Amino acid sequence: MAGQTIQDRLLAARHSLAGQGLAKSVCKATTEELIGPKKKHLDYLIHCTNEPNVSIPQLANLLIERSQNASWVVVFKSLITVHHLMCYGNERFTQYLASSNSSFQLSNFLDKSSLQGPVGVRSGYDMSPFIRRYSKYLNEKALSYRTVAFDFCKVKRSKEDGVLRTMNSEKLLKTLPVLQSQLDALLEFDCSAADLTNGVINMAFMLLFRDLIRLFAGYNDSIINLLEKYFDMNKKQCRDALDLYKKFLIRMDRVGEFLKVAENVGIDKGEIPDLTKAPSSLLDALEQHLASIEGKKSAANTPTQATSTHRTDVKTGVSALSSTSSSFGTIAQQADGVEESLKQAVLAEEEAVLNQYKAKVNSPVNGTIASVNNPFLVSSEPIVDLFSCPAPATQTSTKASDDLLQLSNPFADMFSTPMTGSQTNATNDMSTPLANNWMKSNQSCPAPTATGASDSGNKKVLTGDLDSSLASLAENLTINKVTQPPPVQWNSPKNTPKPGNGQPGMGWSPQPMAATTGANYRPMGQGMMSNPSPFVSTYGPMGVQPSCIGGSAVGGGNLGMTAPSSTQSSQPQPVLDPFGL
């Protein structure tokens, strides 16, 4: 366990490949290396608790999952990380642990993998009891927050506006048992200087020492508040208050033992507060006052004298406890000041790095590079207009190499370049409509022309704006309206009125169908071809449609038939019956 194991490295690499940065940081903070979690990993996790886009439940569940590991080092370091986040992280982390049903189920934890460690180092079997006690304290710390809705280690402490010092009697009697339970769980860690043999348990002890200073400072303030209100309580409240004070005296002795261990492991004496006990006469005064309330007679003095004596003893005891409260409060404030100074130093360092980055970005050289590489950066160069016409050039280069670096608008050059004679003829040919059976000849059906192209009085079609240019094109592209011939009326035998004065079935009999064989058989198309056909059937290229024929459209004509000449079109044409009747 001298360093990170291969399993630690593989697990971190797997989280890196999966893009799970939070899981990777948790894995880095809880490796099997026999040292406490590194500060850089803890600082990153503290930063994550302050980020609104980081899932606090996910972070807590990752740490709880790591506490289920078989290695005592991983489990101990996961508990230390949770404790560190509860002390220095955002309060949202503690709120989640208090509100969720998840807790550390380590009451039966035992690591038998390493029964005997190196010389001078305790084995996993020896560290397992401390892991069980430590997890119990963290569970009790979260439970206390759930009960009173604040952290005893972070509550405001002062004589004038302290939370526990100014609390009313009824609420104080309900809050003190919760504070005592958390303090009991901390004192049950019960380690000696001989047990602190590695960096993991040493870091856990330092976090517990920090909590002890703040917890007992609030505990002492609560007892002072209780003693000041003792003579104004009823009989039941006095009985409960006396019981709480007796428990306070027992815990004060245990706190003294914990502070001795802290002094033996090398903590500076200036960081260890002075513990001043109240005189024993204070307990006697409280018991005698309760006896007088319950109706028990006292042979010492009259009730008035006894009450005056008791109040004097309480004031003496409160004065002694106030010195203890002052000592613990000073140490706690110094620790808070050190933590605040470290926090300000970190913030100043981050601000310096940010200012350095801003200066680097805003520098002339780097600013130019950034503007070139950033496609989303707004450029000061004018935007190229695809529909604008460039200014006429005085001299046009004829060499192709001169146009290699030309940055002019290719679309504007296309519109502004004059058309040659061949291009004009090609355009006119394309504008001429193709002949088809449903249109007139070129003389009677002229090609559509754009009025905007021929009318010089119209406004400019192509402008600098794309929308206005398209609107102008749509407005000016109108087809010249010419007089259209009336449509051809087809006469069908079905539509021919029958004799019989319009009465169906009167004076009309169906005609028998002519036989298709015999001498008198005449095909249906011979009526249409009674006169020699003036048309020349030529097969043109594929896709060419038939043209207009003699001013009347003939459906079903052969493809590729050309229009007749002017002399042929002037001859009268017989009326054609498509049915040959």
UniProtKB/TrEMBL annotation:
Organism: Macrosiphum euphorbiae (potato aphid)
Name of the molecule in the record: ENTH domain-containing protein
Ranges of biased composition (kind: Polar residues): 299-309, 441-456, 480-495
Any Pfam family matching the protein: ANTH
Keyword list, A-Z: Coated pit, Cytoplasmic vesicle, Endocytosis, Golgi apparatus, Membrane
Subcellular location: Cytoplasmic vesicle, Clathrin-coated vesicle; Golgi apparatus; Membrane, Clathrin-coated pit
InterPro entries with a match to the protein in the record: ANTH_dom, ANTH_dom_sf, AP180-like, ENTH, ENTH_VHS
A biological process from GO: clathrin coat assembly
